[in-house]
Design a protein that fits this description.
heterodimer; A: alpha/beta; FAD/NAD(P)-binding domain; 5-stranded parallel sheet; B: 2 domains; 4 helices
Chain lengths: 427, 146
């Protein structure tokens, strides 16, 4: 059996590792555009000098040797040919497979801002952050930059902002929505961060779009104009407005695609013997009960593992694909959020508990939790995440049925132990 | 591997297990050597009072399919193939706390300074974990599991 995996990040390598555990003899080949293994979640630590290049990997140093995985690196797959059961790489070579995993991830979205797209193509001072090459370029540019604009106040944009700030660059973050981290936080939790950012010298502009990139006579970036007509000076720009799935061309075939490659609970695509996992795929998600993109690390790893089982012929569905969880930490303040951070409509209720150093909020309906923000002391947050993921009925768990007591729940309220000492969640 | 089996009904909530864990993480032999004015006392287990008023001691399971390891984007958390224990290599941890986000039992947490994650390591340097050894009522004991 020959397994071919495209992509050497979370989904691809978790698939390779699991395949080797399940099939000691099969041939496993990983083809990746990347020349090294690194965690994309840590790219900003490289920019800020908090982590050297040789501490960026998320698997052991001898991963490929130990697991007898052949790695073809620095090589892009440009086409998949399902009729030949092969892929064609950028060097013109053709590689066959019996089972194929597409774990090619995503690429940054370039918003339709005047002057932006051509600036990215031609110039050295506009960047996106997705791979290690981008991080190296941004770090290099930071050495001579005085002032940077980051377009997008999501997790990546803010990570970049903090790392540039640490390198002594004056940073302005521009977020279109009325607060930063709109996908992860509500306004209250986001505003705590906005204050902290400002205290640390990072400017945050919300409720404004970038309408124009302005270049100087020499062709270098001079700044951006915003929707209200104001001008923000910058000698470098980082675009971080989100990512979209990215995968090779697929020859004359009906691959079911919406935003990403649609997969079933076995990570199978609509083409036989082709599987997909991670940011490139759209899979059934628990909270929304729909097939959506779930571009978070834990989902990518689980999807890679699930694909491995099914590629190896062991039917195993992914049953706990919960895509709405985020963890962040800026300037020492940690936050974890799950599910809906705002009530989707007025049939939901909210309970809040907050003080100077913490802000805890849950969104619930009847006796079920649908979302939470845990900011400050995050110890034990995972219990809340599990309650949301499993849609546990909490009617018997709250003292006097008072929802303000929800923040006191621990696993001790759901304790159930099996004979072998493993836990279950009793609710 | 071995797992810590819990008998909640036996637990009196004396917290000796937590003190023992603190001593272990401080690298001292006895709880008498702990300086309680230190701000950096760490422990990886917990004893809670639930809403029914019952005392429940909770310890890391070193799960067969550990959610914390799945969520670890730095590679700091691994399930050791020989011992079966889930170990956090703090020198590799990036402090993203996706493990804290993912453990359904709340058994991994940020350390006191908030830089890296801390969890149970089964006291690999000793024969019996300090918590188990210190429990006066056998509310926790070691069992062999596959």
């Amino acid at each position: 059996m020959k397994y071919l995996i495209i992509g050497a990040s979370a989904a691809g390598l978790s698939c390779a590792r699991t395949l080797r555990r399940l099939d000691s003899n099969g041939e496993i080949v990983v083809i990746s555009k990347d020349d090294m293994v690194y965690s994309r979640c840590m790219l900003h630590y490289f920019i800020s000098d908090d982590r050297p290049l040789d501490k960026m990997r998320f698997v052991e140093e001898d991963f490929f040797d130990k697991n007898k995985v052949k790695w073809i690196r620095n090589t892009a797959v440009i086409e998949i040919r399902p009729f030949n059961k092969s892929v064609v790489t950028s060097d013109g070579a053709e590689h066959t497979y019996d089972k194929l995993l597409i774990a090619t991830g995503a690429t940054p979205v370039i918003p339709p801002i005047e002057g932006l797209a051509e600036g990215i193509e031609k110039r050295k001072d506009i960047f996106t952050l997705r791979d290690i090459g981008d991080a190296i370029k941004i770090k290099e540019a930071a050495k001579t930059s005085r002032q940077a604009v980051v377009i997008g106040g999501g997790l990546i944009g803010l990570d970049v902002a903090v790392s540039l700030n640490k390198q002594g660059v004056k940073v302005t973050v521009i977020e279109m929505k009325d607060h930063i981290l709109p996908q992860q936080l509500d306004k209250t939790a986001a505003q705590r961060y906005e204050r902290i950012f400002k205290d640390n010298g990072i400017d945050i502009i919300t409720g404004q779009a970038v309408s124009n990139v302005i270049y100087g006579l020499s062709g270098k970036v001079k700044g951006v104009t915003l929707s209200d007509g104001s001008f923000v000076f910058a000698d470098m720009i980082v675009v971080a407005v989100g990512v979209k799935p990215s995968f090779p061309r697929i020859d004359k075939c009906d691959l079911e695609i919406e935003n990403g490659i649609i997969v079933d609970q076995y990570q199978r695509t609509s083409i036989q013997d082709i599987y997909a996992a991670g940011d490139a795929c759209q899979s059934y998600e628990l909270l929304t009960q729909r097939h959506i993109l779930t571009p978070i690390w834990p989902s990518a790893v689980k999807q890679g593992q699930t694909a491995a089982y099914n590629m190896a012929g062991i039917g195993k569905p992914l049953i706990d694909n919960f895509g709405f969880k985020n963890s962040m930490k800026f300037f020492g303040l940690s936050t974890i959020s799950y599910g809906y951070v705002e009530p989707p409509d007025n049939s939901y209720n909210v309970a809040i508990c907050s003080g100077p150093n913490y802000y805890y909020k849950v969104v619930y309906k009847e006796n079920v939790l649908y979302g939470a923000i845990i900011q400050g002391d995050i110890s034990g947050a995972g219990v809340v995440g599990k309650l949301i993921q499993n849609k546990c009925n909490l009617s018997n768990k709250l003292v006097r049925n008072d929802w303000n007591n929800v923040f006191r729940l621990t696993y001790g309220d759901f304790f159930k132990q099996n004979q072998d000492g493993t836990f279950e969640f009793a609710c | 591997m071995k797992r810590i089996y819990i008998e909640p009904t036996a637990c009196t909530g004396c917290m000796n297990c937590i003190l023992a864990c603190i001593a272990h993480h401080k690298g001292v032999q006895s709880v008498l050597e702990i300086d309680f004015s230190d701000n950096d006392l760490e422990f990886a287990n917990n004893v809670v009072l639930n809403t029914e008023g019952k005392i429940v001691p909770i310890f890391c399971r070193h799960c067969d399919q550990p959610e914390c390891v799945t969520a670890c984007m730095s590679g700091a958390l691994t399930k050791d193939e020989t011992t079966g224990y889930v170990i956090c290599n703090q020198s590799w941890c990036a402090g993203c706390f996706m493990c804290v986000m993912s453990c359904p039992y709340g058994m991994i947490k940020p350390n006191k300074s908030g830089d890296v994650a801390i969890k149970c390591d089964m006291c690999l340097d000793r024969e019996i974990p300090a918590c188990v050894q210190s429990c006066p009522v056998q509310a926790i004991s070691l069992i062999d599991v596959d």
